[in-house]
């Protein structure tokens, strides 16, 4: 008679063997870069964007970009959700960037992934800035959104 522990051990071993190729393959595949213009973002070393570049982009961002970035900031915990969500909801209502007909603004979607379009230049990703710069940029986004309400 086969003991329960041997069957369990054989089953666990088979599971590990079956998933090993998947884990190895996952390590080789690059993650997607996001929606819309995300594929156009230059490959920049993480933490290499300057504060001036990021803050300038925030100051010149269009409302749809601003709303999307604010959403990114909340989701990434750079802004306190209980304080920032009401501002974002009011901002979205005013700008209508997230309409009820499900035909949202692509700039908002890109901003939600951390991308900011800067005039006619290549978009920048907040992920390429240091954590301190991201936090400061998010505070500036929140302040700017408040001022536009």
Task: Describe the 3D structure.
Residues 1-26 form the signal peptide. It comes from Komagataeibacter medellinensis. It holds the Pfam family DUF2501. This is DUF2501 domain-containing protein. Keywords: Signal. The chain starts with a helix and ends with a helix. 58% of the residues lie in helices and 3% in strands. It is globular and about 40 Å long. Residues 4-43 have low confidence and may be disordered. It contains six helices and two strands. It has helices at 4-28, 51-60, 63-75, 81-95, 106-112, 131-147; strands at residues 115-116, 124-125. Helix 3 (63-75) packs parallel to helix 5 and helix 3 (63-75) packs across helix 6. The chain has a two-stranded antiparallel sheet. The protein has two domains: 1-30; 36-147, no CATH class. Strand 1 (115-116) and strand 2 form a beta hairpin. The protein is mainly α and 149 residues long.
Strand content: under 5%
Shape: globular
What structural category do the secondary elements indicate? Answer: mainly alpha
* H/E series: HHHHHEEH
Oligomer: single chain
**Order of strands in the sheet with most strands:** 1-2
The stretches of 5 or more residues where confidence is low (pLDDT under 50) are: 4-43
Rounded to the nearest angstrom, the distance between the terminal CA atoms is: 74 Å
Count of domains: 2
The total of beta strands comes to 2
Layout of helices and strands:
Layout: H1 4-28, H2 51-60, H3 63-75, H4 81-95, H5 106-112, E1 115-116, E2 124-125, H6 131-147
Antiparallel strand pairs: 1-2
Helix pairs in contact: 2-6, 3-4, 3-5, 3-6
Signal peptide: 1-26
InterPro entries: DUF2501
Protein name: DUF2501 domain-containing protein
């Amino acid at each position: 008679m086969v003991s329960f522990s041997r069957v369990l051990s054989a089953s666990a071993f088979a599971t590990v063997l079956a998933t090993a190729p998947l884990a190895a393959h996952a390590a080789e595949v690059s993650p997607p870069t996001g929606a819309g213009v995300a594929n156009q973002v230059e490959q920049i070393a993480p933490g290499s964007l300057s504060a001036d570049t990021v803050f300038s982009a925030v100051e010149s961002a269009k409302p749809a970009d601003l709303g999307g970035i604010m959403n990114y900031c909340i989701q990434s915990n750079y802004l306190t959700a209980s304080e920032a969500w009401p501002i974002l909801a009011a901002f979205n209502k005013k700008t209508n960037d997230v309409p009820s007909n499900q035909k949202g603004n692509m700039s908002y979607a890109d901003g939600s992934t951390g991308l900011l379009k800067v005039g006619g230049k290549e978009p920048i990703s907040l992920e390429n800035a240091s954590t301190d710069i991201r936090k400061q940029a998010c505070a500036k986004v929140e302040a700017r959104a408040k001022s536009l309400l």
